Amino acid sequence: MKIACIGCGVMGSAFMSAIAKKVNPSEITVCDKFVESANAFAKKTGCNVASNADAVKNAKYVFLAVKPAFVKEALEEIKDALEKDTVIISMAAGVSLSQLREYLAAKYIRIMPNTPAKICEGMTALCCGEDVCQERVCEVTSLLEAAGKVEKVDEKLMDCVTAVSGSGPAYAFMFIEAMADAAVKGGMTRDMAYTFAAQSVLGSAKMVLETGKHPAELKDMVCSPGGTTIEAFRTLE
To answer: Using one digit for the tens of pLDDT, what is the confidence trace for 52-73?
Structure first.
């Protein structure tokens, strides 16, 4: 299997770092308009570096990890070097499968990841057209699972996914910061406040996933009658 990744920014490097633990790094080639970034990543992981066109030659999968505004340009650069059966995996938010096909006729899988993929705790949504066989979908899913959870969804849900899990970490970081600020006001050191706030959010999220209980039920377990938590909850609402 040969894998190419166009774009070595936050998400591209996150997925290639995870996948490099699952496949031989020598099978992965990265490229970026900032060559220094690509070289630094390759040195760290053992992957290869090449131009966009050279990277995709004979590639089974090409990860397109560029900003939406540069998708058309990137596809234009690789169109003559792309193999017929290569599957392109696009991370570009808001760029539909039909738009991708307008830019370049090829087989596409569209994904929406999030930044926790950097620590292999990501949430990635996946959708594709009927021209991508189930075997390829399963293989790509397996690769993506190196960076966290993966769920296949209908493309009509991708905007919703972007709002919930794509942007979701930013909401969680804001919540953690707010709780930590309150803890500092209460006398905690900043480092301690971040630890207490972040671990509380981490543990709570794992309870939702591992117990299968409704979030409201888990909330009720914390809220004693006439207690401090229900008072705080009233304020939050």
So the answer is: 999 999 999 999 999 999 999 9
Two tokens, residue 215: 């979030």
Nearest to 122 by CA among 145, 138, 90, 154: 145
Phi/psi for 6 (5° steps) reads -95, 110
Q: How far apart are CA 163 and CA 159, in angstroms?
A: 6
Which parts of the chain are beta strand (E)?
3-6, 28-31, 48-49, 61-64, 87-90, 107-112, 122-128, 148-152
Strand partners, 109: 89, 128
Q: What is the dihedral of CA 4, 34, 11, 138, to 10 degrees?
A: -10
- What residues form DSSP beta bridges with 2? none
Entry pTM? 0.91
Cα dist from 178 to 167, 173, 184, 193, whole Å: 17, 9, 10, 10
Would you tell me the crossing angle of helices 190-211 and 168-185 to the nearest 10 degrees?
130
Please answer whether residues 91 and 115 qualify as being in contact, where contact means their C-beta atoms are separated by less than 8 angstroms. no
